[in-house]
Write a structure and sequence with these properties.
By secondary structure, the chain is of the alpha/beta class. The chain contains twelve helices and seven strands. Strand 1, helix 9 and strand 2 form a beta-alpha-beta unit. Helix 1 runs antiparallel to helix 9, helix 2 packs across helix 3 and helix 5 crosses helix 7. The longest helix is centred in the middle third of the chain and has 34 residues. The chain is globular. The two termini are 31 Å apart.
């Protein structure tokens, strides 16, 4: 069945809404959110263009993969591990069929999370699962939707508007520390407003060193730097009484890298509010966007991206 551009863009918005719900799931609502995801992927005309080929791929044995997990490691909880195929489509096929198996009751989500992540707290188990399995799967599905949209845009009549939009940037680099909740929220926002977040950990290594991988994927027009209180530090002669929270060293390094490459206007800094949080001393005087629980940061961040030359759809912010 043929699909049009409006259908694809409608599906993208629905996809990002479902993604947001799943990535913020707790134990009490993971089942409903998982059901909504499967129903959407299996019944929506646009999503079936992406998901059905994943089911039909030969050579992907998700049952054996699941069984093999429990043959790894020792008897301690959290000692089990799994491997994924290096090819993106095979990885997505395996993960999608795994999610379908959990939905149908074929696979035990509780047994998987305890064995692999080592947590017996329900909300923590859900958090680890969606940030591990679903984050990978969402990346593939999102790119599939982007590809469908791009193909339909190419087929559309060529107008000055279409040509002008082709030069508008869509990729934004996200620099982050250990705060997964903060990263997830910002990543989802970037997706929702129609842009593509680049996260170093989500890119394939391809035999590159970390610095080579960083250099390859950092060719963007703008970077968002997330400062979260992940570490503590102070002068050596003041330890530990004067130790203050601070961002991780790699985050500060990458903040300096992008400031040098893109200039201050090419970098937006989002910081999590916390007591005794030490900001980089050489970066004082620059405006930070507070990552507040009232979510005002979403509109402020979107505004900064718009000023940087990105096309932002404010109506998609939720």
């Amino acid at each position: 069945m043929a699909i049009d551009l409006i259908q694809v863009r409608t599906a993208k918005q629905r996809f990002y809404d479902i993604q947001s719900d799943l990535m913020h799931s707790k134990y009490h609502d993971i089942e409903n959110n998982l059901n909504a995801f499967v129903e959407f992927c299996e019944n929506d005309t646009v999503m079936r263009k992406i998901t059905q080929p994943l089911i039909q791929i030969k050579g992907v044995d998700v049952s054996k993969w699941y069984e093999d997990i429990f043959k790894t490691g020792g008897s301690m909880i959290g000692s089990k591990h799994y491997a994924l195929p290096p090819e993106p489509q095979l990885e997505a096929s395996l993960l999608y069929q795994f999610v379908l198996g959990i939905h149908s009751g074929k696979f035990d989500l509780g047994a998987f999370t305890i064995s692999v992540y080592g947590t017996t707290k329900y909300d923590d188990a859900v958090y680890e699962f969606v940030n591990d399995i679903f984050r990978r799967l969402f990346r593939y599905l999102s790119r599939g939707l982007d590809t469908l949209e791009a193909e339909l845009v190419k087929k559309a009549p060529i107008t000055p508007t279409v040509r002008a939009e082709s030069s508008i940037p869509i990729e934004v680099f996200l620099v982050h520390g250990h705060d997964k909740e903060m990263l997830t929220s910002v990543e989802l926002l970037v997706h929702q407003i129609g842009l593509e977040p680049i996260i170093l950990g989500g890119q394939r290594s391809e035999g590159l060193t970390i610095i080579e991988k960083f250099e390859k994927h950092s060719k963007v027009q703008h970077a968002i730097v997330l400062l979260s209180p992940d570490d503590k530090g102070c002068k050596a002669d003041e330890f530990p009484d004067n130790a203050m929270f601070r961002a991780r060293q790699n985050v500060i390094l990458e903040l300096g890298f992008f400031t040098g490459c893109l200039g201050r206007k090419g970098v937006t800094v989002l910081h999590k509010e916390a007591d005794d949080f030490e900001m980089p001393s050489d970066y004082h005087g620059v405006e930070y966007i507070p990552y507040d629980d009232k979510e005002k940061w979403k509109y402020k961040l979107a505004s900064e991206l718009e000023k940087a030359g990105y096309k932002v759809d404010y109506s998609k912010i939720s």
